[in-house]
Each structure stands twice: as structure tokens, then as C-alpha cells.
Amino acid sequence: MPDPLAADGPPEAAAGPPQAAAGRPQAAAGALAREAAEIVFDGATKRYEGASRPALDGLSLAVPAGDICVLVGPSGGGKTTALRMVNRLVDITEGDITIDGRSVRGFEPSELRRRIGYVIQQVGLFPHLTVAGNVATVPRLLGWDRRRTAERTSRLLELVGLEPDRYERRYPSELSGGERQRVGLARAMAADPPLMLMDEPFGALDPITRARLQDEFLRLHGDLRKTVIFVTHDIDEAIKMGSRIAVLREHGVLAQYGTPQEILARPADDYVARFVGADRALKRLALITLGELDLEPAPYAAESDGSGATATTSLRDALSMMLTQGGRPLVVLDGEGKPLGRVSLSHVTAALSSAPESRA
Predict the structure, then answer these.
(1) Contact 65, 38 (CB under 8 A)
(2) pLDDT score of 224 more than 60
């Protein structure tokens, strides 16, 4: 499949024929495809000279195209090392990392980095460039023409909730922390990369702004479906953001890899159980919305009980509402205020007793 991103750019040197993953189309030589990419860590190891133990020790896992994989663990767990090995900011000592079946070693490093979106905690915007100039950085490096770059910049600012007319000509020093982070997200997506790397992107923000940006990114991901590798030390953020979670021990040893539901329901060992927390049952309830449940029939002509429960309310929040009202069932309303049914404490019991099967 030709690489749409290379259409306006200079010819790129071929680095040998790509090896396509089973069932997926091949990418053009020397380039990554525009669509979401499958990422595979195959015994990926990083040893630093003089260190007694690896920084990352034999990491093996596969991230399906379009998923958000969150790497979570303690300081010294190799999370950022693993992330930077993908775009070759850190060289692989042993093993390999492949993108749609092709080793990252087969790409020229600077070209590889232009094809991968990268977001860090402190954003790293260029202070001498406007917002538009920052977002347009990679498209310019890829040789996009001015019109295409301007259209892409305006579109991305709209997507991240910044009005182009108000923000394009501003400089980073004129923005709030949350606005700078939004610009950083737009810049990372500017060339429509198949893969995004995010290293604690919301860690420096206040809790309210952080929650808003988490929600905004999940909305964007639902529309764009990029493959994302996301680093955090916060298990609650990992559960909220990830479709898959890799829990790492110190020195980059994989403790467990699975969906949030699997890890919360069936921790692999005591280390994982302690890491996810004693309240993991409540965390599981936060992953279930009322719209996913087989609700009890609502009484005829039922009206709202004042709880504000809707199809998008989590079962954890519904439990809190029920306890506040003495354990009584809640009426669940649709977007037009019409009753969908009722949720009761029996739904909580049923959800907690149905643990998902562990992955092989």
C-alpha cells in the first residue's frame, strides 16, 4: 500500500522489502502506512553499560492496531525506556520491536520519528513558533505544500477544542498548561501517524484539566483509531485510558498484560494485586456503564428520582447514588429524559461475580 504521507514529500530511500503481518497489507518500503499499526515487542531488552541489570528485560507483548496500550509500573520499571525504543530514541540491545511486522531497525531513525506521533509531559513546544507553526512542524519536514499544511493545522486545532481563528497566531507563552497540552496533541497527530507514543502526557496538569484532556483524547481516539502506547505511573489513569495494560516490575520485567477488566478481576500475583489496589472491585465497576446492563423494567410512567443516572453513568457512580438514597434502585434515563429501566444493587453483585477469562 503506498504511503499517503509521502505523497507530497521527497523520494525516500528503500531499506529493503517490508515484512507484512499476517492478514495485513504491506507498507511501502521506507515508510509507514497511514492506518493504525500493530506493534509487537519480541523479547525487547535494553542494557546500559555498567548497569548490573537491564533497564528493560525481555519485554514481549503485541498491541493490536487501533488499541491503546498503557505501560504502568514503578519508577525504574522501564516504561519510558520501552516507549523510546519504539522510535529509536533508545537503541535495542537484544530482541526486537516490529511495526506491522517490520523491525524498527529497518527504518532510518529520523524518518521513523517523523512517522510516529510523540507527546511528552512538558509538551516541548517551540517557543519562537506560533501555535500553527508548532502543529505544522512535521508536515513541513515531510514536504507538504502550504495549503495542505494549513488545512490540516486548522482541522486538528478544531479536533482538540481550540478555535483556529483564536489560537493559530498565539505563542506558547500565551497559553495555559492545558492549552499547551492540546497543541502538543495536535502536533503529534499532524502527519496522521499510524502510531502515537505518549509519555505521561497529562501528569503535570491539575486534576480537573487532566480529566478533561483524558476524556478529550479518548473521544479523539474513538474517531481516529490510532495505535497508542501510553506511559503512566497512575493505575487509575491506566484503567481509564487503556484498552490493554502492561504492568511492569522493577528493571522492566513484565508482570501481567491484559485488558483492564482482566487485570482487575484476575491479578497474576500478589505484586499485581497490590499495584492495582485493594479497591480493584470498585475500579471494575467504573469500567461498566449502565447502558451495557440488562436493566430491570422501570415502573409505568416512571420519572427521574433525581439521581441523574443515564446510560453513560458508570456502575460505580450508580452504586454511590444508590447508597446515598438508602440502597433504593435508580431510574435510568435516556438522552431525552425517558426511562430506560432501573438499576439495583443486584446488578453490582452480578457484575462483581462475573470475572472475565484470562488471556493465554
Answers:
(1) yes
(2) yes
